[in-house]
Structure formats: structure tokens, C-alpha cells
Amino acid sequence: MKDTVNSTATFEGQFARDFAELAIPWRAEEAPDPRLLVLNEPLAVDLGLDPDYLRSPEGTLLLIGNGLPDGATPVAQAYAGHQFGWYAPRLGDGRALLLGELTHADGRLRDVHLKGSGRTPFARGGDGRAVVGPMLREYIVSESMHALGVPTTRSLAVVATGRPVQRDTVLPGAVLTRVASSHLRVGSFQYARATGDIDLLRRLADYAISRHHPAAAEAENRYLALFEAVVEAQASLLARWMLVGFVHGVMNTDNMTISGETIDYGPCAFMDAFDPAASFSSIDETGRYAYRNQPPVAEWNLARLAETLLPLIHDDQDKAAELAVEALGGFRPQYSAAWAAGMKAKIGLRGVKDDAASPLVDELLALLQAARADYTSFFRALAQAARGRRESARNMVADAAAFESWAERWCALEPDADAMDRVNPVYIPRNHLVEEALAAGTDGDVGPLGRLMEAVSSPFDERPGLERYAEPGPEDTAYRTFCGT
Hints:
Blueprint: H1 14-18, E1 23-25, E2 35-39, H2 41-46, H3 51-54, H4 57-63, E3 75-77, E4 81-83, E5 86-88, E6 96-103, E7 109-115, E8 130-131, H5 132-147, E9 154-166, E10 170-180, H6 186-194, H7 198-211, H8 222-244, E11 246-247, E12 269-270, H9 294-313, H10 317-328, H11 331-346, H12 354-371, H13 375-386, H14 391-395, H15 400-411, H16 417-423, H17 431-442, H18 447-456
Antiparallel strand pairs: 1-3, 2-9, 4-5, 6-7, 7-10, 8-10, 9-10, 11-12
């Protein structure tokens, strides 16, 4: 942690300065009556910022881009993207701004970025604003993912603007201040490639290498190595999503980062009942981005990234395609290995050979699916079964005899219950609890938000008084989440 924190921020303008072709200088819309709803104090300190200052009127203005220090160069970033499989050549930050970069306590740069800060030239007919509920959702879920050890963008603050925003009804407006290793996306490369400016594409790739994957710079083919590094990062990320039961909901190529961080928590949710077809997005009518489809969609998105990099990978485009296809072929085995290792850890068999553990995993997931068992609660109960107390886990499975048969074979491999508790969370952002916090926050009451954050910020540590945060909500197969635009 840094020794000192500052009352003001000095934003680097590296992206704005180096990539004028991909950035439009812009200013955040003035908020008539800004009010801080929630501040991530530990993250603020890691960024060298004084939480007391950020809670002041001047600090609140900084958090929404209305009170920036001299020299700051906020920009709306340009990118393209495949949205639900259809290519859109010009998307960009329609309601967002990159304020600049700050140096984190780890010595690396972080982007500080706004969502809901008003219309930009990329707004495409939208109002550029956000409302309190969806911005609090991103705060809750992104910080929960961070606590679970899943690579993610993070949330620094949510500020109510004091401006009513028209959606289905009139709702209070808000701005989210989020932090990321960068906002480079597959869509950023798609936009650069579409310009036909290979020098721009090369500079963007070099920037991605220096900022996220520096080992690629030492490779014989640095741009192929960059692609391989992104493939590896995304294979690991998708396995982590699947292991905790997270459904992103809108895996467009503009929502896939080069860093390997989760980004854009719009219509997202965690599964309660285990269902490979789980889909919670109001705009995903066909289930394209359902839970079970996330790994193949990630592979598809990576293929789109590969297409953009072909001119850099090799001068002979046939050879470039051959190399890219070979590199993309690493996604499935890397994902499968990460998933298998994670599932072995979840059932306490980390050191057991795959040929013994994998059939147990497959059989157990089939039992959970048949019973629509609560995914999170079951694995915590399974740790108790490893300690000889099987009743709770057995009662979650419809076929008790099948579970007992499975458990006998599993226990013979001596599962490590304590190790299971270290990887299986007690607390996730349960959908009914998230909705409760969002509804209260929309009405100006952040008490439920604070209590939920207390639970999910230490997800593996069971604590007295937080029992309701570990309990599944009422099963609602029609649960839907919305992006807030």
C-alpha cells in the first residue's frame, strides 16, 4: 500500500495522447445535485486517493468528471464490436468517459472510467445517462467477483446525479466510477483494423503488450505471442466464471478485454439453481450467452480478435491464418484444464488424478442439474459431507440413493474439507438480495447495500448474523436483469 494518499488526482493521459484516432476529447455532463452513494475506500487508497477528500463536495465532483484537475484529458473511446453475432463498425463510449490513468499501489497503471456521464458522439440516439439501480448492480457484482478471485474491473464509487432519467418510468440518475487495468477490448482492435491503418493497429498491439502481456515482447513473433496470451487469459477467466456460476449476459466482442478482466456488468447474475441453460439477460432472447454457452462464445470472440491481428502476425496472410488458428486451438485444452482443476478443488480432490476425479465431477453435476440444486449452497454443504455430515448435501439432491453411491466413491478418495471451504463461497450476490439493495438504493437508502457488501466482500468466511445472505432466494425461472440504457 502506498505510504501517502492525495487529496487530488493527477491523471495520466496516455491513451488520449497516444491514440487520438481512437479517442474523442469530451467532458462529462454537469450533475445538478451530486450525492455520493457508495465509495470503495480500500480501492481509493490503493490508487493514492484520500477517501475523506472523495467524500467532500469537491471530491464527489472529481468522481463524476465535473471537477477534474488541470491537465486531465477525458475522452470517449472508439471501438467496434459483434453484438449478438452482428457486426457494428462504430460503437464506442456512448455514455462513458476515460478520465485517464492513475498508478495503483502495485506500480501498474489503472484506467479511471465513468459510466452514465452523458451523451458523447458515440451515443447512437441514447441519452448517455445511467440510473442508480444498474450502477449499484455493477458495484456489487464487480466487487464480489474481485473478492472471489475472479479477474475484473472494479468499482470505485457510485454518485447520484440529482437528475431524473426517463426509462420505463422516471428514475434517479447516477454515475459509476470504475477502475480497470485498461479498457482495451477485442472491439478496440476491430475498430483499428477496420480503419485500414496498419500502423495504428501495430501501435495498439504494442500498447497492449507493454501494458498487459509484456512477456510477448520477448517472443520471436510478438503479435502471435500477444494473441496467445489473450487466449490463455480468457480461457482462465471463463473457467473462473463457470466455477462460481456467473452468467455475464452480454458477451459481445466489445465486452471482452485484452487484459483478461471481466467488464461491463449489465444484465448479469449468479445462478442459484444449477441449470446449464441459465440466462438472465432481458435482451438475450435466444440464450446465445447462457451459462453453458459462455466458453464457446469466448472462443468465437477470440477468433474475431485473431482476424484483426493477421496483418501483424505474418506478411503472408495464409501463413498468418494458419498460425492464428493453431494459437486459437489452445483455448479449448486450456479452458478444459482450468475447469477440471477448479472442479477438483471444489470437491476437495485437488491432488487426485483426473481419470479418478473427472467421472465423479460429471456424475455430480448431472445430479445437481436433475434436482435444480442450489449451486453455491451445495458445495458448501458438500464440505460438511466430507466431514461425515452428509444429510444437508443429500437433501439437496432428488435421488438420495444415487447421491449416497456417489458419496461413497468420493469419500474413498479422502476429500479435503478445509480446502473445499477455501474455494467454495458461502456468500454470493444472491439475485433477490441484489434486487433488494437496488430498490432501497434507488429510494436513497444504502443500508441494504452496505450489509450485502459486508457479506460478499469476504465470501469464504462464514460469519454469525449473516445467515440470510447465504440462503437461496425463491426460485424464479423468469428472473431478468437489464443493462439500464
